[in-house]
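Okay, any thoughts on this one?
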Amino acid sequence: MQNIIWALITLVGIGGGTGLGYILRKKMAQNQANSIEAKAEKLLAEAKTQQQELVLQGKEKAAQLLDEVKKEEKQIKQDLHNAQERLERRETMFDQKLIELESSKQKLQEQANKIQQVKTDIEKLKDQELEKLQNIASLTKDEAKEELLKRIEEQSKGDLTARVLKLEKESNEVYEEKARELIADAVQRCASSHAAEITSTTVHLTSEDMKGRIIGKEGRNIKTIEKLTGCELIIDDTPDAIVVSGFSPIRRQIAKLALEKLMADGRIQPARIEEFVEKAKQDLAIDIKKAGEEALYKMGITGIDPKLVSIVGRLKYRTSYGQNIVNHSMETGYLAGMIASELGLDAAKAKKCGFFHDIGKAVDQETQGSHPEIGYMILKKFNMDEDICQTALTHHQDKTYNIYSSIAKAADAISGARVGARKDSYEQFVARLEELEKTATSFPGIDKVYAIQAGREIRVFVKPNEVDDYSAFQLAKDIARKIEQELQYPGEIRVTIIRETRVVEYAK
């Protein structure tokens, strides 16, 4: 029972506490809600206050901006008004200027019309005066002009000729002095052999009986030798010697070698002759190659094709006016190198240009064409430098390819003009002098022509009534050009024109 009471009490306590807690919680929640609402109202009131302040500030700023815009608008209107006034003033000024320009234009046009009228009147007067002059002089305008120019030309010809001669003399003196120094220096520094060769070769015999053995029965041996070598064997009373005659030095050398081998062997008959001629050709080919290698070595030229080396070696057996071509080519190369060195140019290139300038003479007897053309084709075939090729082509022409061609041409002339370097036979010498005089005599107005100084100079006497001083100046150039084009000669030839007028009167 007691437990039940305690249980009831406990239940009542629990229920009362629960109700009391509920009431307290509700009260606390009500208070809390009132507090949040109060805060919200407070915040709302503050927001409304701030809103009103912001609206007021916005209205104030808007009013300020409106005032500024009105001020700016007023200023712009004022500026536009001022600009319009300035434009109106300028337009007024432009109108005034335009009126003045129109007035000036009209005045100028009137003056131009007056000037044109005056010009027309002057032309009429000029034509009238010209017509009067033509009637008086009996000459037209063109005829009078031609006559005037003719008289001026005649009066000035002497002065012009004197001036031209003076200028040419001054220029030639300067250039000749400089060229003389270069050439003299090059010649002094270069010395080479000048032994001349001829068109025959002497073969010494071991005994006098060898002549009959070389001739053979019914001349079979000598005919075989001449047929295979292309040379003529001259057997005369000269003791222990046979002369081999032929235009080609290579063929003469083959004949000489073959004869020497036959005499050493002792068996001279057509079959052995043919065998030894072939051996002589082989030995000569080796000798030619060695000669080419030796010449190129002395010149300091390397990197040459072996075939071109053999062509160079053939120059050992080629002569021109009695001068050995390989010696001439080496000398020309040395001289060209020295001259180029003095001028500050490529001495090695100049040396090659001078050395290879006559390469065409190595095969010109077997190949159609002139030796400059043949030389050009040979050098082009072996891919030589274009300057070297052009030098070979143009070294006998008036117009050279470039400075190296000119140097090689000068060196060639120096080498050929050395005393004793070249020689002609008496008949060739006389024929050359006659051709020289005949060439100069072919021009009109020539009285007499004399070739002097072994053909190095010709003196031409002209008829003074047919050739004046100016024409004599031109005549000398024409004769020189014709000699260069038509004649072959070593060195250079000087052309001297002599015009002499003699007046004779007797006092009685």
Notes: The chain is about 70% helix and 5% strand.
